[in-house]
Amino acid sequence: MNRTELPETVLQRRAIVYVRQSTVAQVQDNVESQRRQYALADLARAYGFRDVVTIDKDLGRSASGTTARPGFEALVAQLCQGRVGAVFCLEASRLARNGREWHHLLELCGLVDARVVDGDGAYDPSVPNDRLLLGLKGSISEFELTLMRRRLIDGAQAKARRGELHIPVPVGYLWAQGLPWK
């Protein structure tokens, strides 16, 4: 779907740009990602939205499901109220890192006739082909997270087998030769 195909009923509602990075270190060090996400507000205006709101309350919060995300909750609340015409995100992983949240968001968008827009285009979750593609994007995002986690665990286990895994000790303790701490 391109910019000219968005219905006026969608454009009359709010566009939400959802900005998120998983860690405080990413927020401080990966500023290009933030710039790209904030630039989605310009993309929303280019699509024809007049009311564009950026939600960035979840910067530095993981979407793993164990951390509260007040920005995501505000997004879902506004969707349920029918105020949102489109949700803009850089990629599926910015919105959700697990299938439950992703598919719930798609279901809500489909119910209220809202679109999901990323760098590749605008998608209508109530259209089967768009829903399929969005579902695949969410599944790929979830798979990437699982793959990254597995690589980190495998790397730590390999270091541990070689005796090279060093785990930080609590403040006040020191590593000593032959002993884990003094």
Q: How are the secondary structure elements laid out?
A:
Layout: H1 8-11, E1 14-18, H2 24-29, H3 31-38, H4 40-47, E2 52-55, H5 70-80, E3 84-88, H6 92-95, H7 99-111, E4 115-118, E5 121-123, H8 128-162
Parallel strand pairs: 1-2, 1-3, 3-4
Antiparallel strand pairs: 4-5
Helix pairs in contact: 7-8
Calculate Rg over CA atoms. 20 Å
The amount of beta strand, in percent, is: 5-15%
Strands in their spatial order, largest beta sheet: 2-1-3-4-5
Q: What gross morphology would you assign?
A: elongated
**How would you state the average pLDDT, rounded?**
83
Helix content: 40-55%
Largest sheet: 5 strands, mixed
Task: Give an overview of the whole structure.
Strands 2-1-3-4-5 form a 5-stranded mixed β-sheet, with helices on both faces. It is of the alpha/beta class. The protein has helices at 8-11, 24-29, 31-38, 40-47, 70-80, 92-95, 99-111, 128-162, and strands at residues 14-18, 52-55, 84-88, 115-118, 121-123. The protein is built from 8 helices and 5 strands, in the order αβαααβαβααββα.
Short description:
The protein has 182 residues and is an alpha/beta fold. 49% of the residues lie in helices and 12% in strands.
Characteristic key phrases:
182 residues, alpha/beta, five-stranded mixed β-sheet
